[in-house]
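Task: fold both queries, return tokens.
Query 1:
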Amino acid sequence: MFRHILKTALQNSVESAIVATAETAVSTTTRKFVQAFEIMLPTTVFVRASQCDVIVRHWPDLRVELSANLRASFGWDLVAEQDDAGIYIVAKRKLIVGQLSTAHFTLTVPPQVNLVFHLTPGTVRLMDINGKITVPGTGS
């Protein structure tokens, strides 16, 4: 019986140490990323991401700003690029290490910008809105 108690205590200690080490690694690898894009209207911002939160704010400037907060940043591939058609933001979680990762994005855009989201899954919050918003039905 004493061996069983000792074995259980040792196992719990090892599991606690592993969890604590993993959490420390995750919190120390949080990365903030900010990128701004000068735009001409009309333009579209495309966001393709998985398991993330996106906040959209409006402002009068003719530029789009992406602010990303990546927890366990080693678990993400993040690309933000611009061409004549618009701005493309792609955030993909890596297979195994991505399970520890979370992402929070803030997009600050002029009100005239078109927004397209493909989130699997995700949350979009609209802040500081003054005017008309049209949200079409979801599709594949």
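Query 1 returned. Query 2:
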Amino acid sequence: MMRDLTDSFQHASETRYAPLLVSGSSISMMVGNALGGLLSGRFQTWHLHPLSEEYAIDMALRLGRQLGLPVTEEIAVALFELTQGYPYSIECILNSLSPAIQRLPDVTALPDVVFFEVTNPLGALYEHYENEYGKYVRQLNGDGTTRKILYWITNYPGEHLHPERIAERLQLDLVQVQESLERLYRLDIIARASISTFWGPTDPLLLDFLRYEHYVDIDSLLPQDAAAKLRRELNAKQREMNRQAGHFSEIIVAGVMNNFNNQQVAGETYFRVAGSVTLPRMAQIVRREGVIKRGDIHEIDVVGEYNLYNQQAGNAALGAWLVSVRYRQERMGEQEVAAFIEHAASYQAEKRYGAVTRWYFSKAGFTEAARQRLQQEGIYASDLAQFNALADLFGLLPLAM
């Protein structure tokens, strides 16, 4: 028996302060079907975004400890690359019934776990996507236009979807394309960017699920052939996972800087400088990932830019933190500090910031000569203990010894 539940919460929602929180995945459909009509405008929708890189990594490490799994820094970075920070996806992967989970901390096990999760009915992600999207996607089998658009979207994730552009590329009727996009929007497979344009899905594992469903239901591939095709695509992601894992420390340092919000902290405690230090709210943080100039790896690994007020336009209106990150077992010496000073000066000559703060983070610390040079130059310096104390201010897990 079907029953309309709208009346059961309409009275409460009509009060000035409605004590109601409605949660769900298919928000667009929920708003249209349950929160429309007389309730229209009574509710404000709030989309929860994926975790940022540093918090997704932090979550993976914490969950690994809780579950007794050997989740290393490399695994945590790879999980972010695979999920793009969707917390439920991270949780499902680490709680997976896939036999491949026993191969951790071998990072090559993760594509196999993901494959299980998006193709096997025993996978928690498969069940989730099947309940939320699968049944609707199969209803589109008779709609050739929507099928073509859906398949195109899965191959161009995150692209700005203009009906005119899609109609031209796929040689489809514009009105049918507009109707199909509205249909996919109501299923929350795509998101609305403006009145007539949309954004493609940002959940990469939803895209993998949709690809697999498309291969089987629409391309009519045998399950084993669809599986082989998806496996190849998942394995191709391994290269990016490996590359990012090599920059783990830069990711974490950038993540801590992303939490700066004009706080005042004790300089000696965190940076080996006297007095208080302001942690400016960053307008932009860029990881440079091993930039090479004149044949040498550049010492500036992370650049954080923030706004300076009462300054003229251009880069002079920006301040910057120039950061060198060395996550090695040996202490940094005076020669490395000298290279950092040179590269910071070169970068400042190019950018011409209104103010520059230089920060050198070395996991193992510094030699005595290096410490003296850093102090003479007024450069902020942190070893692992000091950096972990700083990370703790923002509730992030410490880096490993």
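Both queries returned. Flag for query 2: Residues 291-296 have pLDDT under 50 and may be disordered.
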